[in-house]
Each structure stands twice: as structure tokens, then as C-alpha cells.
Amino acid sequence: MIQERLQSYQKSDSGYQLGLKLLSHQDKNVRYFGALTITVFLNTHDSGDIYTTTFDQILEIIVFLINEDFAGNSFIIKKLLSNLSLLFVSNYASSNIDPVERLSAVISSTDNNPLPTSIIDRLHDQKQLEIVIQFLTILVEDIIKVPKLSPSLHNLIHSTIFNHCRQLYEQIGYQVSLHIHNQMLDCLSSWVVYISVAETSSDQRYTDDMGIFIQYLLNQFSLQEGELNLESLNKVFTVMTEIIDHIPRVLTPFKSTIFSLLFANNSFGVNFIKTVLNDSDFREMYSSEIENFVNLVISYLTLNLVSITRNILDDEVFNVLQIAISLTNTPGIAIEDEKTSDQFILFWEEFTNTFIDDGEAMKAIFQDEATVLRFNSRRDEVLNQVAQIYFKKINCYPGISKEFRQYRVSVADMFILFYSLLSVPFYAYICDSVSYSLSVPNKTEEVVNNLESALYLIFKITDDIYFYDNSSDSETSLTPLVDGFFSKNLVGNIQGIPDYLDKQISVTLLNLMSSLSFFYKNDIGSQYLPDTFNFLFTIILHSQTDSLSLIASRTVYKICQDSEEKLIPFLPNLEMILLEMLKNPAVDNLIRERMTNSYVSVARSTKNPIDLGNRIHEILLEINSRIGEADEEYAVSLVSCISEMSKAGTYPEEIEDYLTPDQLQTAKAYWTEDPLNVRNSVLNSLTQISLNGPDFLMKSSIVTEKCCIVLKSGLREEIPGPFTFELDVILQYLISKARCSDSQSILTIQSLIETIMITHGKRINDNLLQELVETVFNNHDSSDVDAIASSLEMFTTILDRKPAFLLQWSNFDKVIGCGLHALSMNVPHTLQRIIKFFNTFINLKKGSRHEQERVREIVISNIGSTLVEFLFKSFVMAPRSAIDHYYPLFRTLIAKFPLEIKNWMAQLLGTVGKAPLDGEQTELFINKLIITRGQRQAQDVLKDFWLQVNKLSKTKY
Question: Which Gene3D superfamilies does the record cross-reference, listed alphabetically (predicted)?
Fold first, then answer.
């Protein structure tokens, strides 16, 4: 409340005088608030008439503050300088004031003495010089923040303000304090950013004007050791990097100088790098300076990347790359002790991408095969050197941080890129590293870390390969390489590491196994499944770490999904483990559910319905024996296990390709008879849990969801199976379930009804459907627009598949009423479903002529005017991004009810929108709309209407 009152005072016509009054106070914080008040006033008022007076008044206050206590008042002075900047930017077009000229004249004036022409010559002391530098800095920083700037302002800045800045750097020399020197570097940094903006948004070009500034920066590197200051150098590094990144063109005349400065023998750059690599105290003390120097080196190298890669055979270029490699290999643990290697990741990625993207041009450059071979050899040599560095850098250590984990991911992404260029030999190189580590008898910490790093990189590369390319070529080339290290007892060696379950290498091996589906499903890799599953089951059953068990269960799930037929021999093991998990409430629920899916998917792959039936039956018996005594979380997990069985037990869509004709006939015959009553057992389980169980299960929306998944799983099956139920059975269950369900469960039931209508709508029992729809509709939450929209979504599907059913239903008028109510609520995320319902209803594409006439009667007699009213009001209030959703219904109404909608619109258009149409505009709009006859042109007319009544300019869109 107080803040609002203060802001109202600041924005009032007296705001400027209030600011001056506050600035005259003794308290410095009050003075700052006065300067801030003037800022608010200037931002909310036209200052054209008071520009000159206000500018001079503020200058007088600045002079007073300088003389009173320059250091103590510096934060107030900076705010006042920003006000001068704001005045200038707001009024430059109507005034010929040169703000830098005026500032320097006022702060340096002495009685009766004429002012020198040069601004620098006017300034008498460091304080005055600092004020000018600060103003030159603040001015361009404030200009950059302005959203849209006129080219004329950029022209004025270039011709006047910039010239003052250039003159300052030309004349000031180097006999200034370190403080002033650092301020000049900050000023130059701001100007570099401004110049890049100005060149982008105007025709101003600074290429020929930047020499003095570049030379000023370069001269800092030639100072004697005693004159060097790392704080200043840090700023120089930053400014040079900004120039390279934003306006590299200005560096062309200095290209060779910068190259020598950074990379020549005994140059500043090389000596700085040697210090970084050899002096741990220096690295610890000057981490920011090192980081900015590395950014400078990387920016310079990136700028010349095409030239570097094309000339990699040149010894000078190769030497530069060796310097970059040595810097990449800065000693210490990455992220924790050094950040240089992290900074270089992006560069080495761009370096690699340049070879990939520039490949065709390089082929044209190198005509003879011998040169190409030497070129590729040199390229590979560099990348292998880089790979060796990062291979060591990603070695894990105890208690690794989140940032280091992300670093490992970034390194792995880089290795993936290396693989895309170097292909299988690079993959083989990493696999050889695994084999070497496995062959070392004494598994020291270093050996284990190297082994883990190699396995991690193989996992990431393999996972990427098979995410984008599941080709047999990759399988053929990679399988022998993976076999190479599996054959050296990979799993046994890792299990032999003391406390291996507590080490990162266990997680890495689990992830690697999950990515090797191509390997396990062929004859070479399948021989390692016993060791693999022994390792996985050991972790699942005995690991003290929940996260490790979860990863192991996910790995089992993934292998079973991709290599199910190879796992048939393991069914007894899987069965034993699963039954134990079903009995044990302490097992993690997700692990239990994954194992259920894995077991049934492998059992299905036997293509033996008798075996599958026996296994599912046994699981159901175990689940049914446990449900009665289970607590809520355990009971829900057991229901989820039935759901997972239904997913895993479903045949692939192209069943003729999956089963032979004989297998198909056997499956049909078995599941038609269903001798073990598996389907009844499933239904009994669902009924016991969700209809006859304790309240916490009957009312659980998760249980309802899982039961509906089971019932839904067989709807698209072409042949009978363990989860294909008669439609009447499904409908009767849903009727019972809907009677005891909350609103969230009703949404799930509605979704299943939609699937039933889509898959079996033609042969559904109308009496059961009516009872189900009535039960669901009566139990939905009519006060919840989301619930109404979901109901309408279900009714839309029924209208589309079985229109006669709804039109004859006595409660359909209530459905329409709910739809109108929901439309009037104008809840954005529900509108698309609501509009689709009305559009489907009015179009009634599959309705008979009699049914379409019935719809026409309902629209004209009962709902038409209300529907059009709510539709227009909602349309006008909709955001621009949502108005496309309304067009189909508008077009349908115009096409089918041209005369009626004309009258309905005439009655309401004068009342909708921020700027409602008057009588003449209404008539013109209606005529434009009706003449389109509901064709696509209607959308343009409606869009223009939306823009007009919302007071929006058409040109904005």
C-alpha cells in the first residue's frame, strides 16, 4: 500500500520537484531515492519542454555531490548520470545538445577562464575524468536497453558521442591510475556491445574507427612484468573476447598481431599458459582470470576454425592445436579444481563438426590420395589426443557432485560426435581400453576408474547409435567389439571388485547392458545372458540401494523387451524371482511391476498358448491370495502387475508376421476354450479388488485406471487371448464400477468407453451402453468444467460412431445444456473439446436424413441463439493463439443456418468486445460473413472482427 502511494507521487506532475527536494536531504539513501524518483518521473512524462533546464539542474547537483564527497556519493552520481542519459535519448531529435560536451564543460568550469576545445584538456583531476568515463559507459548501456531505436540516434551516437570516446582513448595515454584504467576497460566493454547492436539495427559501421581501441587493448600485453595487473588483464581478456564474438571484422588488421600474442614462442599467451599448467597456487588464486583467458583463446580459435581445420597439415597450425590441447589438459579434477577442460568441450565439438560439415570442400582441396591420408591421420591424431585427456578427466571420485555428473554427460556427447566422424575404429579404441583394464591382474582404483570411464562412454555412444540408427550394419560391426571385452569375463571381473555394488561402475554396467539389445539378441551376445542376468538378479534381490535395484529392474525390462525370444531358457529363473516379489510387500513396487511385464513378455514369446496360460494363471493365483491381506500401496501394486501382464501378453499388431498359420490356429483354439478360465480369473481379480474390496481400493482412481488398462488391452486383438473379454462383460463391469467411482475415476471410464466405441461401436449392446452412459453422466461432476469437457469428448465419439443412440436418449438435452454451460465458462484448455462436440453434433456426418433434420430442429428451436451468443463471447475473449479453434464451428453454423445465424448475430454483436460494433458495422460484418457461405474465407472475416472488437491493429498479426 505504501509502495503504491510512493509510486503515485513519483509518477505525478510534482514528481520531479519531489525528486529535487529529496536530493537536497543530508541522508545519502534519501538522496538516492530522490534520483530514482526523477527517473520514474522522466519515464512517465514528456520531458521535451524541460529538457535543457532539467539537464543543467541535474548537472549542478552532480557537481555539488562531487565536491562534497565523491566516493560516498558515487552511487547517487551514477543514478543521476543515468537520468542525463534518459533525457538525451528521449529528446535527441528535438535538441542539439551534446551531452558529453555539456557534462565536461559544467564539471570542469572555472570562473572567467575559457574552456579548452578538447574535452580531455578541460578535465582537471581524476574525479572529473572518472565522471566522463562513467557517463560514456552508462549512456551506451542505457541505449542498448531501449527496445526500438531510430537509425538517426545511432547516426548521432557515431558522429558525436563515439568521437568523444575515441578522443579520450587517443589522448589519455597510460599515465593514469589503475582505477581509471579499469574503468576505461569497462567503458570499452560496454561500447563493444553497443556497436554490435548498432551495426545490426542500422547502417552505421565502425570497422575503420576501432583501431585505437584495439591497440589500447593489445598494448596491455606488452607492459613489463612489474606493470602487469591481473585485474586489468582480466578485463582485457573479456573485452577482446567480446570483440571477437560480436564484431570480429574490426580485428582483421590485427590478425597476425593477436596470433603472435597468443601462440608465438615466448609470447604473453604461451607464458601465461605455462604458468597455468605449472603453478597450482596461481590456478587457485586466479581462477576467474584463467577462465576469461581461456574464453579469449577459444573465441579466437573458433573464429578461425575453418582455416585451422583446412590447414591442419601446416606445422604452425598443428602447433597452435597442441597449445590448445595442453590447455585442455590443465591439471586437477574437472569442475572441482579446474574448469578449463569444461570450457574447451564446445570448441572441440565445433572443431569436429567443421570437419563433418566442410567435408566436401576438403575433398576438392586435396586432390591426391596421399595428401588425404596424411590429412585424415593428422585429424585423427588431434582428436585421439583430446579423447585421451577427457577419458581421464571423467574418472569418478567419491562423492562426485551434480556438476561433475553433468560434465561427464557433456564429455560423452562430445565422444558421440567423435564417433560420428571417426566411426568404428574410435569405438574399437574405447573397447580396447576396456579389454586392457580387464586384463590387468591388480584392479587398483585407477584401473577401476579407467574401466568405468570406458564402459560409460561405450554406453553413451551405443545408446545414441541405436536411438537414431537401428541398422544391421551397426550390429555387424559393433558386435565383435563388444564381444571382445565380454569374452574377458567383464561381469565376473566387476563382481570381483571389493564393494562393487557401492561403486559407480555397477550403475554404469547396468546402463550399458540396457543399451546392448542388438548384442544380446544375436547368437554371439546371447551366450552372455546367464552372466548378465545373474548380475542383474543379484542386484535386484540383494542391493541395499533402492536406486541401483530400480536401474537393474529397468535393465531387465529393456533386455526382455528387445531380446525376449533369447530369454526363454531363463523363464524358470524369472518365475522364481517374480513369485518371491509378489509375496514380499517390501519389494519396490516399480521393480515388481517391471519384472511382471518382463516375465510375461518372455512367456508370450514362446508362442505356446498352453505355457502362457499356465504362467499367467499361476501369477493370478498368487495375486488373489495376497490381495485380501495387502495394505493400500502393496494392493495397488498387485493390481498394476495384472495391468502389466495385460500389456505384455498382447500380440504384436501384425500377428500374421509373428505367428505361423499353425501357431495362429493353436492359439485361437486354446484361448477360445480357455481351459484354465484365465479370463474369468482376471475378471474375478478386478472385481475382488475394485468392486468388492476395501474402500481405499474401490475409490482409488489409480486402481480404476489399472483395471481399465486390462479391459482395454484386448479390444484391438485379432484373435482370442488371455485379456480379450466379451463386450457385454466389459460394459457390465464398467456400469458397476461407475456407480462407486469418484470424478477422477469417471474420467478414466469415459476414456475406455471412447475406445470401445472406436473399436466395436457397430456391435455394442444399446441397452447396456445406455445404462453405462447414464450412470457415467449422472456421476460426473457437473460443477467442474474439465469434467464436463471430458464427458463431451466421450459424447463426441459416440455421436461420430452411433448418432442415433444419443439422439434417442432422453437425457441428451441435458448433455447439450452442459455443453452450453461449459462454453459460457470460457476455460481456455477445455474449449477445443467443447467446440468439437457442437461441431460434430451439428454436422452429424453419419446420421440419417431424419436424424439430421432432428438436429436442425434442436438448433433452430432450442439452442441456436444461445450457442451463437456464447460462441461469440468466448471467441472475442480468446487469446490470439486460440482463435483458430473456433473457426470450424463458425463455418458449420454459417453453412447450415445462414438465415438464422444472421438474426442471432444481429441481436448480440453490439454488446461483445472492448469496442463493440455499431449498427452499420454489424450489418457490414454480417454480410461479409454470410457471403462466405462457411468457406475458408470466413476465417479471415472472423479474424478481422476479433482484431477490431479487441482494439488491436491488424498489422500486428
Answer: Leucine-rich Repeat Variant
DSSP state of 780: S
- Delimit the domains of the chain by residue range: 802-957
Our CA angle for 362, 365, 368, nearest 5°, is 105
Q: What is the pTM (predicted TM-score) of this model?
A: 0.83
Q: Which residue has the cell 579404441?
A: 429
pLDDT score for 714: 93
Looking at residue 956, its pLDDT comes to 35
Residue pair 326/344 in contact (Cβ under 8 Å)? The answer is no
DSSP string, 878-897: S-GGGGGGGHHHHHHHHHH-
Per-residue pLDDT tens over the stretch 44-59: 888 888 888 999 999 9
Instruction: Report d(CA 103, CA 88) in Å as an integer.
Output: 12
* Per-residue three-class SS string for 259-323: HHHHHCCCCHHHHHHHHHHHCHHHHHHCHHHHHHHHHHHHHHHHHCHHHHHHCCCCHHHHHHHHH
Low-confidence ranges of the chain (pLDDT < 70): 1-9, 110-115, 173-174, 223-228, 468-474, 953-957
3-class DSSP state of 784: coil
Q: How far apart are CA 695 and CA 697, in angstroms?
A: 5
Q: How far apart are CA 572 and CA 863, in angstroms?
A: 65
Give the integer Cα–Cα distance in Å for 287 and 299.
18
Q: What distance in Å separates the CA atoms of residue 560 and residue 556, rounded to the nearest whole number?
A: 6
Name residue 857's amino acid: E
Give the CA-trace dihedral at 49, 36, 179, 124, to 10 degrees. 40
At 676 the pLDDT is: 97
| Cα distance between residue 512 and residue 516, in whole Å | 7
